[in-house]
Amino acid sequence: MQMTKAAVRPLMETFSADKGFDMNKGKGALRLIGLVLCFVVLSVQAQGAVSMPAFSLPAAADGAVVASEAYRGKAMLITFFATWCPPCLQEIPALKELQTKFDPQGFAVVALSVDEGGAGTVAQLMKKTGINYQVLMADQATTRNFGGVAAIPTSFLVNKHGQVVKKYPGFVPHGLLERDIESVL
Question: Is 57 helix (H, G, I), strand (E, B) or coil?
Fold first, then answer.
């Protein structure tokens, strides 16, 4: 949001009426407010990247345990999903395309299923849709470690240094994912 002089004027007039604030000196206060806002925005952005939580989870296809350590040095899109979730199913073609396009550049899609029906249901979906990326069975600890996944789909973009740089609650358009992935490769 851009702060304009017109938007700040009522605030400045309040200071003038209540505190004897001189409006001519208000330009300095306006600059101070702007600097404070810039500092707050920059400090929040600097805190954005956090380390991806480690996990070891069974693969939906064969039950083999896959550790997050296997992806060291790769950029990743971690997506929490379920087989009964329409937006999750809608994302599958885009995720397959992203996996194919960016795999040679050190990128991987890793889907974490929160299905309670077990790996068999998820494996059937994988076969039916031709999923070409890793699908693991998430547990409660993993969803909690990712900050508590309140809704699905929820995805996390992880850079090659293992830092979560972006969270996407809900369905994410293909173009946005593609641009963001390119920015971390």
Answer: strand
Q: What are the structure tokens assigned to 118, written together?
A: 């077990």
The secondary element (H helix, E strand) that includes residue 165 is strand 163-169
111: which strand partners? Answer: 79, 135
Specify the CATH superfamily of domain 50-184.
Glutaredoxin (3.40.30.10)
Which one, of 145, 129, 161, 174, lies nearest residue 80 by Cα?
145
Cα(80)–Cα(151) distance, integer angstroms: 9
Domain ranges of the chain: 5-46, 50-184
* Interval 113-172: pLDDT, tens: 999 889 999 999 999 999 999 999 999 999 999 998 999 999 999 999 999 999 999 999
Q: What's the CA gap between 113 and 153, in Å, rounded?
A: 10
Q: With contact defined as beta carbons under 8 Å apart, do 48 and 167 qualify? A: no
The region of weakest confidence among 38-42, 63-67, 76-80, 144-148 is 38-42
Spatial CA neighbour of 177 closest among 153, 155, 160, 146: 155
d(CA 142, CA 160): 20
Q: What is the pTM of this model?
A: 0.73
CA distances, 46 to each of 43, 50, 70, 159, 165 (Å): 5, 10, 27, 15, 10
